[in-house]
């Protein structure tokens, strides 16, 4: 979209990226909600949130991280996500999904749902006590489903645990469960996650696959291009 002089229609974007049209619409809604895109009458254009100094560095990382996300997607049979903590917010960098493994409809912005997602809790648990307290103080713990943690003390107790794999059991969206593994690159904190139907129980291999992907993503993001 940034390379186009005119607004780009959703169908054109789906065709260019090879994504299913429903998946394209899901991603577009999320990007518009978070300010990375703007929706006009004849298509989409780049929004103000995308105009940040770190954007070129993050774009440069995509060729390194996307193959890892796709490999994880194919191994576990679920859409995969890479997120990082940047400038006080949890930000989604990339998603790997497909026609048979669609990504979660991110109907609530990622930066407002850290308490309810596996990758959000994974990142919050990896922050310093001061950074975590700052994030929680600036974000309401929205009641997204009957399973969402909305009590700050309960959330903080859970985040004090040092889990190798974090999960959300239909806390963000009913019918969907997620698993996430932490990524640490120097002082930077991130997470790789996979979403699965809640009715499909995770297997032992999923945790190992997530941890392998987290290590590979950490290596990929540790180069001089990173600027998050």
TrEMBL record:
Domain IclR-ED residue range list: 49-223
List, alphabetically, the Pfam families matched: HTH_IclR (PF09339), IclR_C (PF01614)
The Gene Ontology biological process terms listed for this entry are: negative regulation of DNA-templated transcription
For this UniProt entry, the molecular function terms from Gene Ontology, in alphabetical order, are: DNA binding; DNA-binding transcription factor activity
Alphabetically ordered keywords of this record: DNA-binding, Transcription, Transcription regulation
* Top-level taxon of origin: Bacteria
Report the protein name in the record.
DNA-binding IclR family transcriptional regulator
Species assigned in the record: Nocardioides kongjuensis
Upper lineage is:
Bacteria, Bacillati, Actinomycetota, Actinomycetes, Propionibacteriales
């Amino acid at each position: 979209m940034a390379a186009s002089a005119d607004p780009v229609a959703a169908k054109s974007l789906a065709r260019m990226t090879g994504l299913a049209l429903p998946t394209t619409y899901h991603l577009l809604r999320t990007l518009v909600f978070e300010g990375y895109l703007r929706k006009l009458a004849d298509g989409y254009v780049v929004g103000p949130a995308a105009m940040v100094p770190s954007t070129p560095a993050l774009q440069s990382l995509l060729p390194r991280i996307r193959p890892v996300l796709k490999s994880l997607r194919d191994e576990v049979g679920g859409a995969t996500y890479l997120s990082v903590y940047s400038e006080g917010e949890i930000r989604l960098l990339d998603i790997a999904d497909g026609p048979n493994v669609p990504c979660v409809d991110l109907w609530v912005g990622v930066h407002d749902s850290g308490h309810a997602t596996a990758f959000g809790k994974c990142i919050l648990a990896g922050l310093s006590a001061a950074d975590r307290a700052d994030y929680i103080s600036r974000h309401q713990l929205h009641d997204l489903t009957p399973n969402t943690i909305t009590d700050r003390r309960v959330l903080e107790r859970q985040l004090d645990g040092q889990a190798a794999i974090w999960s959300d059991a239909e806390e963000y969206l009913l019918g969907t469960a997620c698993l996430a593994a932490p990524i640490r690159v120097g002082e930077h904190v991130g997470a790789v996650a996979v979403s699965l139907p809640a009715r499909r129980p995770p297997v032992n291999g999923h945790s190992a696959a997530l941890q392998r992907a987290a290590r590979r993503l950490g290596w990929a993001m540790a180069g001089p291009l990173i600027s998050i």
